[in-house]
Amino acid sequence: MHTHALLRGGHMSGLHVGLIGAGGIARAHLPAWIELGARVTLFSTDGQAEKLAARHSARGVEAVRTLDELLERSRAVDVCTPTHTHRELVHTAVRAGKHVVCEKPLALSVEDTEEMVKAAERAGVLLFPAHVVRYFPEYAAMERAVRGGAVGPPAVLRFSRTGTYPVWSPWFADPELSGGILLDQMIHDFDFARWLAGEVVRVYAQSRGHQQAPVEAGAVAASTAVLTHASGALSHVHGVWGLPDSEFRTTFRIAGRDGVLHHDSAQTKAFRVVASGERAAGEGIPATNLTESPFVGELREFAAALDGGPTPRVTARDGLAAVRIAVAAAESARTGETVRIEDATGSNGSRETQEVQAR
User: Fold this and answer.
1) How would you write 118-175 as a 3-class SS string?
2) Phi, psi of 235, deg, nearest 5
3) What are the pLDDT digits (tens) for 113-137?
4) Total-model pTM
Protein backbone atom coordinates (compact mmCIF):
# COMPACT_ATOMS: atom_id res chain seq x y z
CA MET A 1 0.00 0.00 0.00
CA HIS A 2 1.24 3.48 -0.89
CA THR A 3 0.69 6.42 1.41
CA HIS A 4 1.53 10.07 1.12
CA ALA A 5 1.61 13.05 3.39
CA LEU A 6 0.86 16.68 2.69
CA LEU A 7 3.90 18.64 3.77
CA ARG A 8 4.27 22.34 4.55
CA GLY A 9 3.58 24.35 1.39
CA GLY A 10 1.28 21.70 0.01
CA HIS A 11 3.94 19.28 -1.23
CA MET A 12 3.30 15.56 -1.28
CA SER A 13 5.66 12.82 -0.29
CA GLY A 14 5.25 9.36 -1.76
CA LEU A 15 2.18 9.86 -3.97
CA HIS A 16 2.67 7.84 -7.14
CA VAL A 17 0.60 9.18 -10.04
CA GLY A 18 0.06 7.49 -13.39
CA LEU A 19 -0.51 10.14 -16.06
CA ILE A 20 -2.19 8.78 -19.19
CA GLY A 21 -1.69 10.93 -22.27
CA ALA A 22 1.04 13.30 -23.44
CA GLY A 23 -0.88 16.05 -25.24
CA GLY A 24 -1.64 19.64 -24.31
CA ILE A 25 -3.56 19.04 -21.09
CA ALA A 26 -1.11 16.35 -19.92
CA ARG A 27 1.67 18.91 -20.37
CA ALA A 28 -0.29 21.26 -18.09
CA HIS A 29 -0.92 18.60 -15.44
CA LEU A 30 2.61 17.18 -15.39
CA PRO A 31 4.38 20.35 -14.12
CA ALA A 32 1.67 20.68 -11.49
CA TRP A 33 2.27 17.15 -10.22
CA ILE A 34 6.02 17.80 -10.19
CA GLU A 35 5.52 21.04 -8.24
CA LEU A 36 3.42 19.13 -5.71
CA GLY A 37 6.18 16.58 -5.24
CA ALA A 38 4.42 13.57 -6.72
CA ARG A 39 6.27 10.77 -8.47
CA VAL A 40 4.86 10.52 -11.99
CA THR A 41 4.76 7.66 -14.49
CA LEU A 42 3.61 8.41 -18.06
CA PHE A 43 1.87 6.26 -20.64
CA SER A 44 0.48 7.11 -24.07
CA THR A 45 -0.12 5.21 -27.27
CA ASP A 46 1.26 7.88 -29.62
CA GLY A 47 4.93 7.65 -28.75
CA GLN A 48 4.97 11.06 -27.07
CA ALA A 49 5.14 9.86 -23.45
CA GLU A 50 8.78 8.83 -23.83
CA LYS A 51 9.74 12.26 -25.19
CA LEU A 52 7.81 14.06 -22.45
CA ALA A 53 9.35 11.89 -19.73
CA ALA A 54 12.83 12.51 -21.09
CA ARG A 55 12.38 16.27 -20.71
CA HIS A 56 11.48 15.79 -17.03
CA SER A 57 13.74 12.84 -16.20
CA ALA A 58 15.68 14.91 -13.68
CA ARG A 59 12.48 15.10 -11.63
CA GLY A 60 12.05 11.30 -11.67
CA VAL A 61 9.40 11.16 -14.41
CA GLU A 62 9.41 7.87 -16.28
CA ALA A 63 7.48 6.44 -19.21
CA VAL A 64 6.19 2.87 -19.39
CA ARG A 65 5.14 0.79 -22.36
CA THR A 66 1.87 -0.64 -21.08
CA LEU A 67 -1.16 0.55 -19.16
CA ASP A 68 -0.84 -2.43 -16.82
CA GLU A 69 2.64 -1.31 -15.82
CA LEU A 70 1.37 2.20 -15.12
CA LEU A 71 -1.43 0.83 -12.94
CA GLU A 72 0.98 -1.37 -11.00
CA ARG A 73 3.12 1.64 -10.11
CA SER A 74 0.37 4.12 -9.27
CA ARG A 75 -1.96 4.90 -6.41
CA ALA A 76 -3.85 7.49 -8.49
CA VAL A 77 -4.39 7.82 -12.23
CA ASP A 78 -4.74 11.08 -14.19
CA VAL A 79 -6.62 10.62 -17.48
CA CYS A 80 -5.54 13.32 -19.96
CA THR A 81 -6.62 11.70 -23.21
CA PRO A 82 -9.24 12.49 -25.90
CA THR A 83 -12.77 12.47 -24.50
CA HIS A 84 -13.97 9.37 -26.33
CA THR A 85 -11.33 7.29 -24.53
CA HIS A 86 -12.26 8.42 -20.99
CA ARG A 87 -14.93 5.81 -20.28
CA GLU A 88 -12.75 2.75 -20.91
CA LEU A 89 -9.68 4.17 -19.16
CA VAL A 90 -11.61 5.27 -16.06
CA HIS A 91 -13.32 1.89 -15.73
CA THR A 92 -9.96 0.13 -16.10
CA ALA A 93 -8.38 2.30 -13.39
CA VAL A 94 -11.35 1.92 -11.05
CA ARG A 95 -11.34 -1.87 -11.44
CA ALA A 96 -7.68 -1.75 -10.42
CA GLY A 97 -8.64 0.13 -7.26
CA LYS A 98 -7.07 3.43 -8.28
CA HIS A 99 -8.29 6.93 -7.49
CA VAL A 100 -8.87 8.86 -10.72
CA VAL A 101 -8.54 12.40 -12.01
CA CYS A 102 -10.30 12.65 -15.37
CA GLU A 103 -10.30 15.59 -17.73
CA LYS A 104 -13.63 17.13 -18.60
CA PRO A 105 -16.06 16.11 -19.86
CA LEU A 106 -16.07 12.81 -18.03
CA ALA A 107 -17.75 11.15 -21.01
CA LEU A 108 -19.82 11.92 -24.11
CA SER A 109 -23.16 10.62 -22.84
CA VAL A 110 -25.11 10.85 -19.63
CA GLU A 111 -25.40 7.07 -19.48
CA ASP A 112 -21.65 6.48 -19.77
CA THR A 113 -20.93 9.16 -17.19
CA GLU A 114 -23.45 7.66 -14.74
CA GLU A 115 -21.78 4.26 -15.12
CA MET A 116 -18.36 5.76 -14.38
CA VAL A 117 -19.58 7.63 -11.30
CA LYS A 118 -21.40 4.61 -9.89
CA ALA A 119 -18.44 2.32 -10.53
CA ALA A 120 -16.14 4.63 -8.56
CA GLU A 121 -18.65 4.87 -5.71
CA ARG A 122 -18.99 1.08 -5.55
CA ALA A 123 -15.21 0.66 -5.54
CA GLY A 124 -14.75 3.28 -2.81
CA VAL A 125 -12.32 5.34 -4.90
CA LEU A 126 -12.38 9.04 -5.72
CA LEU A 127 -13.35 10.07 -9.24
CA PHE A 128 -12.42 13.73 -9.68
CA PRO A 129 -13.53 15.62 -12.82
CA ALA A 130 -10.88 18.22 -13.69
CA HIS A 131 -13.14 21.26 -14.01
CA VAL A 132 -10.18 23.59 -13.63
CA VAL A 133 -12.17 26.81 -14.09
CA ARG A 134 -13.42 26.41 -10.50
CA TYR A 135 -9.78 26.98 -9.51
CA PHE A 136 -9.02 30.05 -11.63
CA PRO A 137 -8.59 32.94 -9.18
CA GLU A 138 -11.14 35.33 -10.70
CA TYR A 139 -13.80 32.62 -10.82
CA ALA A 140 -13.01 31.37 -7.31
CA ALA A 141 -13.18 34.93 -5.97
CA MET A 142 -16.47 35.50 -7.74
CA GLU A 143 -17.94 32.31 -6.29
CA ARG A 144 -16.91 33.31 -2.78
CA ALA A 145 -18.44 36.75 -3.26
CA VAL A 146 -21.74 35.32 -4.50
CA ARG A 147 -21.85 32.84 -1.59
CA GLY A 148 -21.25 35.79 0.71
CA GLY A 149 -24.31 37.58 -0.61
CA ALA A 150 -22.55 40.22 -2.72
CA VAL A 151 -25.33 40.32 -5.32
CA GLY A 152 -28.14 38.57 -3.47
CA PRO A 153 -29.63 35.45 -5.06
CA PRO A 154 -28.19 35.19 -8.60
CA ALA A 155 -30.85 36.14 -11.14
CA VAL A 156 -29.12 36.59 -14.51
CA LEU A 157 -25.71 35.08 -15.22
CA ARG A 158 -23.66 35.61 -18.38
CA PHE A 159 -20.51 33.73 -19.35
CA SER A 160 -18.38 33.82 -22.50
CA ARG A 161 -15.30 31.84 -23.51
CA THR A 162 -13.31 32.44 -26.70
CA GLY A 163 -10.23 30.64 -27.96
CA THR A 164 -8.54 29.43 -31.10
CA TYR A 165 -10.29 26.58 -32.95
CA PRO A 166 -8.34 23.51 -31.74
CA VAL A 167 -7.20 22.32 -35.15
CA TRP A 168 -3.95 20.83 -33.78
CA SER A 169 -5.77 17.59 -32.88
CA PRO A 170 -8.36 16.44 -35.44
CA TRP A 171 -10.62 14.76 -32.87
CA PHE A 172 -11.76 18.11 -31.39
CA ALA A 173 -13.80 18.98 -34.48
CA ASP A 174 -15.57 15.61 -34.57
CA PRO A 175 -18.67 15.69 -32.31
CA GLU A 176 -18.59 11.90 -32.14
CA LEU A 177 -15.18 12.08 -30.45
CA SER A 178 -15.25 15.37 -28.51
CA GLY A 179 -18.91 16.37 -28.24
CA GLY A 180 -18.06 19.57 -30.12
CA ILE A 181 -17.80 23.04 -28.65
CA LEU A 182 -20.76 22.58 -26.27
CA LEU A 183 -19.29 19.57 -24.46
CA ASP A 184 -15.61 20.28 -24.88
CA GLN A 185 -15.38 24.01 -24.22
CA MET A 186 -18.65 25.40 -22.87
CA ILE A 187 -19.06 22.67 -20.24
CA HIS A 188 -16.73 24.77 -18.05
CA ASP A 189 -19.32 27.54 -17.88
CA PHE A 190 -22.28 25.16 -17.63
CA ASP A 191 -20.61 23.71 -14.54
CA PHE A 192 -19.98 27.12 -13.04
CA ALA A 193 -23.50 28.39 -13.74
CA ARG A 194 -24.93 25.37 -11.92
CA TRP A 195 -22.47 25.84 -9.04
CA LEU A 196 -23.70 29.39 -8.53
CA ALA A 197 -27.41 29.24 -9.36
CA GLY A 198 -28.38 25.63 -8.71
CA GLU A 199 -29.84 22.84 -10.80
CA VAL A 200 -30.68 23.44 -14.44
CA VAL A 201 -34.11 22.28 -15.60
CA ARG A 202 -34.30 23.55 -19.20
CA VAL A 203 -31.76 24.29 -21.93
CA TYR A 204 -32.07 26.04 -25.29
CA ALA A 205 -29.02 26.24 -27.55
CA GLN A 206 -27.98 27.25 -31.05
CA SER A 207 -24.75 26.53 -32.91
CA ARG A 208 -23.21 28.14 -35.97
CA GLY A 209 -20.10 27.72 -38.09
CA HIS A 210 -17.90 24.69 -38.69
CA GLN A 211 -19.18 21.95 -36.40
CA GLN A 212 -17.75 18.77 -37.95
CA ALA A 213 -14.52 17.06 -38.98
CA PRO A 214 -12.30 17.50 -40.87
CA VAL A 215 -11.29 21.03 -39.97
CA GLU A 216 -8.56 23.36 -41.19
CA ALA A 217 -7.02 26.52 -39.78
CA GLY A 218 -9.33 29.45 -40.37
CA ALA A 219 -12.50 27.64 -39.36
CA VAL A 220 -14.82 29.26 -36.82
CA ALA A 221 -17.54 27.76 -34.63
CA ALA A 222 -19.81 29.39 -32.07
CA SER A 223 -22.62 28.27 -29.79
CA THR A 224 -24.98 30.00 -27.40
CA ALA A 225 -27.02 28.32 -24.67
CA VAL A 226 -29.65 29.65 -22.29
CA LEU A 227 -30.05 27.67 -19.07
CA THR A 228 -33.15 27.93 -16.90
CA HIS A 229 -32.40 27.04 -13.28
CA ALA A 230 -34.89 25.52 -10.84
CA SER A 231 -34.52 28.74 -8.81
CA GLY A 232 -35.81 30.78 -11.74
CA ALA A 233 -32.37 32.21 -12.53
CA LEU A 234 -31.28 32.38 -16.17
CA SER A 235 -27.74 31.74 -17.43
CA HIS A 236 -26.55 32.82 -20.87
CA VAL A 237 -23.42 30.98 -22.06
CA HIS A 238 -21.56 31.85 -25.25
CA GLY A 239 -18.60 29.92 -26.65
CA VAL A 240 -16.36 30.57 -29.65
CA TRP A 241 -13.69 28.55 -31.39
CA GLY A 242 -12.08 31.33 -33.38
CA LEU A 243 -9.42 32.19 -35.93
CA PRO A 244 -5.77 31.19 -35.38
CA ASP A 245 -4.89 34.62 -33.98
CA SER A 246 -7.82 34.74 -31.57
CA GLU A 247 -6.79 35.82 -28.08
CA PHE A 248 -7.99 33.58 -25.28
CA ARG A 249 -10.70 35.57 -23.50
CA THR A 250 -13.29 34.87 -20.82
CA THR A 251 -15.99 37.07 -19.33
CA PHE A 252 -18.66 36.74 -16.70
CA ARG A 253 -21.42 38.98 -15.34
CA ILE A 254 -23.48 37.86 -12.34
CA ALA A 255 -26.50 40.01 -11.52
CA GLY A 256 -28.88 39.88 -8.58
CA ARG A 257 -31.18 42.29 -6.79
CA ASP A 258 -28.33 43.60 -4.63
CA GLY A 259 -25.64 44.16 -7.24
CA VAL A 260 -23.56 42.96 -10.18
CA LEU A 261 -20.18 41.22 -10.39
CA HIS A 262 -18.36 41.27 -13.69
CA HIS A 263 -14.98 40.39 -15.15
CA ASP A 264 -13.32 40.51 -18.58
CA SER A 265 -9.94 38.86 -18.94
CA ALA A 266 -9.10 41.10 -21.91
CA GLN A 267 -9.35 44.16 -19.67
CA THR A 268 -7.56 42.85 -16.59
CA LYS A 269 -4.88 40.85 -18.39
CA ALA A 270 -5.08 38.38 -15.55
CA PHE A 271 -4.98 35.56 -18.10
CA ARG A 272 -2.49 34.95 -20.84
CA VAL A 273 -2.05 32.10 -23.32
CA VAL A 274 1.06 30.12 -22.51
CA ALA A 275 2.66 27.02 -23.91
CA SER A 276 3.65 24.21 -21.58
CA GLY A 277 6.59 22.54 -23.24
CA GLU A 278 6.66 21.87 -26.95
CA ARG A 279 3.37 22.31 -28.76
CA ALA A 280 1.74 22.38 -32.14
CA ALA A 281 1.27 25.78 -33.74
CA GLY A 282 -1.69 27.60 -32.22
CA GLU A 283 -2.08 25.36 -29.20
CA GLY A 284 -2.36 27.22 -25.92
CA ILE A 285 -3.16 26.49 -22.31
CA PRO A 286 -4.90 29.29 -20.42
CA ALA A 287 -3.07 30.15 -17.23
CA THR A 288 -2.71 32.92 -14.72
CA ASN A 289 0.31 35.07 -13.98
CA LEU A 290 -0.99 36.43 -10.68
CA THR A 291 -1.01 33.51 -8.28
CA GLU A 292 -0.75 29.73 -8.03
CA SER A 293 -1.49 27.74 -11.15
CA PRO A 294 -5.10 26.54 -11.08
CA PHE A 295 -3.84 23.14 -12.22
CA VAL A 296 -1.73 22.93 -9.06
CA GLY A 297 -4.73 24.00 -7.00
CA GLU A 298 -7.10 21.40 -8.36
CA LEU A 299 -4.62 18.52 -8.15
CA ARG A 300 -3.65 19.49 -4.60
CA GLU A 301 -7.32 19.29 -3.54
CA PHE A 302 -7.66 15.87 -5.15
CA ALA A 303 -4.50 14.56 -3.49
CA ALA A 304 -5.46 15.92 -0.07
CA ALA A 305 -8.85 14.18 -0.27
CA LEU A 306 -7.18 10.79 -0.72
CA ASP A 307 -5.99 10.80 2.88
CA GLY A 308 -8.99 12.25 4.61
CA GLY A 309 -8.73 15.89 3.58
CA PRO A 310 -11.76 18.00 2.65
CA THR A 311 -14.01 16.90 -0.18
CA PRO A 312 -12.83 18.71 -3.34
CA ARG A 313 -14.95 21.64 -4.50
CA VAL A 314 -15.97 19.62 -7.56
CA THR A 315 -17.21 16.04 -7.25
CA ALA A 316 -17.97 13.23 -9.66
CA ARG A 317 -21.67 14.04 -9.29
CA ASP A 318 -20.94 17.62 -10.32
CA GLY A 319 -19.14 16.28 -13.37
CA LEU A 320 -22.19 14.16 -14.20
CA ALA A 321 -24.50 17.15 -13.86
CA ALA A 322 -22.29 19.19 -16.19
CA VAL A 323 -22.39 16.44 -18.82
CA ARG A 324 -26.18 16.31 -18.46
CA ILE A 325 -26.47 20.04 -19.20
CA ALA A 326 -24.01 19.91 -22.11
CA VAL A 327 -25.72 16.91 -23.71
CA ALA A 328 -29.09 18.66 -23.40
CA ALA A 329 -27.58 21.75 -25.05
CA ALA A 330 -26.22 19.66 -27.90
CA GLU A 331 -29.64 18.05 -28.40
CA SER A 332 -31.30 21.46 -28.41
CA ALA A 333 -28.82 22.83 -30.95
CA ARG A 334 -29.48 19.81 -33.17
CA THR A 335 -33.29 19.89 -32.95
CA GLY A 336 -34.00 23.58 -32.45
CA GLU A 337 -36.21 22.72 -29.48
CA THR A 338 -35.93 23.48 -25.79
CA VAL A 339 -34.75 20.40 -23.88
CA ARG A 340 -36.00 19.70 -20.38
CA ILE A 341 -33.60 18.04 -17.96
CA GLU A 342 -35.79 15.55 -16.14
CA ASP A 343 -33.19 14.00 -13.87
CA ALA A 344 -31.57 16.96 -12.15
CA THR A 345 -29.92 15.47 -9.08
CA GLY A 346 -28.12 16.89 -6.10
CA SER A 347 -28.30 20.42 -4.75
CA ASN A 348 -26.79 23.78 -5.55
CA GLY A 349 -23.13 23.11 -6.26
CA SER A 350 -23.51 19.91 -4.30
CA ARG A 351 -20.47 18.59 -2.52
CA GLU A 352 -21.64 15.06 -1.83
CA THR A 353 -19.08 13.20 0.21
CA GLN A 354 -17.61 10.27 -1.68
CA GLU A 355 -16.50 7.37 0.44
CA VAL A 356 -12.79 7.01 -0.15
CA GLN A 357 -10.97 4.03 1.22
CA ALA A 358 -7.29 4.36 2.07
CA ARG A 359 -5.40 2.07 -0.24
Assistant:
1) HHHHHHCCCEEEECHHHHCHHHHHHHHHHHCCCCCCEEEEEEEEEEECCCCCHHHHCH
2) -120, 130
3) 999 999 999 999 999 999 999 999 9
4) 0.89
